[in-house]
Each structure stands twice: as structure tokens, then as C-alpha cells.
Amino acid sequence: MDILFVASECAPFVKTGGLADVIGAVPKSLAVAGARVRVLIPSYPGLQDLASDGTTVARFDDLFGGQAEIKAASAEGLELLLLVAPHHFSRAGNIYLGADGQDWPDNHLRFAALSYAGAEIAKNGVDAWKPDVVNVHDWQAGLLPAYLAQSSKTAPPVVMTIHNISFQGLFDASQLKNLKLKREMFTTDRVEYYGRISFLKAGIALSDRITTVSPSYACELLTPEFGMGLHGLLQARRKDLSGILNGIDLDVWNPETDPHLAKTYSVRSLKRREANKREIETTFGLRRSDGPLFCVISRLTSQKGLDLLLDCLPGLVAERANLALLGSGTSELEQKFLAASKQNPDQIGVIIGYDEPVSHLLQGGSDALLIPSRFEPCGLTQLYGLRYGTLPVVARTGGLADTVIDANEAAIAANCATGFQFAPINATMLGQAIARACAAYRQPGMWSGMMRRAMRHPVGWNASSAAYLRIYAGLAAGRDQD
């Protein structure tokens, strides 16, 4: 089976979040199962050398304001189709934001270009290759099924994957013509959303199937609380919606071979983790403690619930625990965590920004991982934590609820706990979860047993890839086999 992925980012080439990790990992897993996946992404500055060595397989005389071409290249085990459009993508810095921290004002044209190029590949193929199924990811690729819907050419079926419904790609209705959308597309059952154009709604309304990244999040999306205004449309398409849990790249995230660790280890050599813990203490300026070392690896935003953690820091400090935080986000949260670190420098260490090697080190040496998200479609950080034996402390929502087994009395008795959940999602319950984790940490036998179970918990892509393949096969055969 031949499958086209269309997305705005792909690890390890360009990454701003978990979407890139998924796009970089799923095609490899699908390939093991016998599918051929080609990934269409923009050719950002970091990809220029790879594009230069690639083969031109398509050209556009005018792709929303300039000439463009598609280059075929292979790297990191992936077959890439790079959209070379310098007028849209040859920009330094963040791929979505300008130097002022605001969205690029022409993002609607930039990612319409990505969708349009993907639609042309879907209809016409490239390089003597044509996909059987197209899988578009998030709002940046959401217009692709709209372009197919307004075309008279036969095209393959489309799957829309929602990684986070809070990002919807909303633009002014006056851009309809500039986006090469026909007037009849601007209706409530297509691209119109409260008088504006929604790229994400277009993808949801006009794709053949819809997936999202965990079973619980699929259920949550049908509610007003989590559906972000699109719950009615998703309820109408409930039979076409599936929740398929994300996985992680087991080669990249492997404590036995990870080059970013001070010392590698396995489930049979957990004592070697101590070297990583000492390295974290040095990196973050923390003193050694007899309590657990918690870590945070996250965007500092309200969605991630990090404001709740601020209220819990006095209790964490009183438990003689330490905290190492790596992240960036709103200025207010950054400043408050820096102030907390200044007030308790021996127990709270903060690095503002993102550092991939440090994130691996935190997973390989911390005792527990804090993820108090108000909503979380899937989350990958807790999967990395499980893989590395860093026990997740998570809010009971979305993929966090689907992947972490709470250490309640029943789970402890059954020897199946892998972390700690809390609900409702507020500071009081987060504080109680932190206290529960500290109490468990002081029972070495229980803690080491949980670590070993966590590390053995399946977090790869095998089962999820099989679920995607069932959907693809059903669509390609003209029937749904999911």
C-alpha cells in the first residue's frame, strides 16, 4: 500500500512539538508492516542541503505567489517529498512565528501551499508514484481535502489526524479567493466557521476518516469542554472518528543506548541511573536529597497546567524533594518559576528554553515526571518517562489517562501500577499526587517494582500502526474494516 503523509514538521529535520516526533516515527513503523509512506513537508532553511541533493519530481509556476517545486529525497529512514517554495518557507527562526512572537501574517498562504501541493500529488502522483491513501495532519494540511473536493479529478481517500484541536487555522473569509477555494466551499458543512475560514474544520468535514491520538481524547472531542467549538461536527461524524494511541521511536528513546545520558542502563541495571541523577543535580544546581527528584519537560502554558504546579511547590519542598524544570512559554510563568528557583535554589532548578540532550538526561535520571495538563490529546513525554523508568505523575485526561496506570490500592495489590494519576485537575489534587509519589518513593521495593513495570510497558508503534493500516486498507478497498 502506498500512503502520502502531509504535515508541517517532521523529526529530526524540523520540530516544534510532538507532531514532528509522530511524523518522523509512524512511517518507519508502517514500512515494517509492508506499506510505503512518503512524507510531504515544507523545505525550511535547515532542509535546503537535503533538497539540493534531491530529485525534482514536480514544479509549480505560481504556488500562491511564487515558483515552487517538489524534491524527492531520502534521509533518516524516511522517504521525503520536500516542498521547495522559498517565498513561503526560506525564513529564519520559528516555522510558524515571526521575530515578534506573532504568527507569520501569511501563514494562510504558506500552509495552503502545502495543502495544494499535497492535493496535486494525490490527484496526479509524482515520480511514477501515486498514493492509495492520503493522511493529513493538523490544520496546516487541512485544506488538502477541500482542494480535492472541488476538483473533478479522481483522488484517493483522505484521513485527517487531529493532534491538538485547539489549533484550528482560522483566517478571514476575505481570503477565500486568495486560497484558491471556490465560493461554494464557504458553507457550514465545509470550510466556514463562524464567518471565518477554518483549515482544521475543512479537514474534519471533508476527509473520509478522522483519527486522533488517543481513545480518551476521541471521546473528549465530542464534548463542549474539549471540542473547542467543533464538537457538533465531530458528533455528526462520530462513526468516522477513531482514537489511536501515539507511540514513540524506540531507537531514539532507548536508555540502553542513549548518547545523551551520563550512563546508560536497562531494566536489569537500574542502579546505573544514579549517575544520571547526579548529572542532573549538577546541571540544575541542586543539592542531593533523600527525597525524589521530580522533573518537568514542557511548554509553560495554561494548557499544560504548570500554573497549578506553582501552588504545589511549597509542599514539594517540604517533602524534601527536588524539582528540575526545562521549558519555555508565557513570560509570566517563566518569571514565576525563576523566582521560585531563586527562593529555593538547592531544591528547585530551572532552565528556560528547550535542549534535546538535557531532556533525555532528565528522563534518564529523574525519579518522577510531572504532567498536570488541563487537556492532553496524547502526550509523548509520559511515554518517554515510562520507557526510561521515570514514573509519570499525570492529570487524568486524554492520552495521559490511557497510558499511565495509577498506583491506587487495587493496582498496587495487582502489581500493575506504573505512575500516578489525579483528578479533578486542580492544585489540591496535584499536591496530593505529589505527596503520594513521595510516600511511594520512600518504599524502595514498591518504587523499583513500578519502575520495572513502567520500562516494560509497550510504548512503541506496533499496535497503533496496525490500527492505522486497517483504516487505510478499508478506505483503499472501498469499505471500512476498522
**Overall body shape:** globular
| Name of the CATH architecture of the largest domain | 3-Layer(aba) Sandwich
**Could you tell me the radius of gyration in angstroms?**
23 Å
CATH topology of the largest domain: Rossmann fold
End-to-end Cα distance, whole Å, is 16 Å
Q: SS-based structural class?
A: alpha/beta
Number of helices: 19
Which sequence of strands runs across the widest sheet?
Answer: 3-4-5-2-1-6-7-11-12
Mean pLDDT: 96
CATH class wording of the largest domain: Alpha Beta
Major beta-sheet overview? 9 strands, mixed
CATH homologous superfamily placement of the largest domain: Glycogen Phosphorylase B
Number of separate domains: 2
Beta content: 15-25%
Task: Describe, in short, the structure shown.
By secondary structure, this protein is of the alpha/beta class.
Walk me through what this model shows.
This protein is an alpha/beta fold and 482 residues long. It has two domains: 2-247 and 462-476, Rossmann fold, CATH 3.40.50; 270-456, Rossmann fold. It is 38% helix and 19% strand. The protein has 19 helices and 18 strands. The protein has a nine-stranded mixed sheet with strand order 3-4-5-2-1-6-7-11-12. Strands 15-14-13-16-17-18 form a six-stranded parallel sheet, with helices on both faces. A hairpin with a 2-residue loop joins β9 (192-193) and β10 (196-198). α14 (381-388) packs across α18 (444-456).
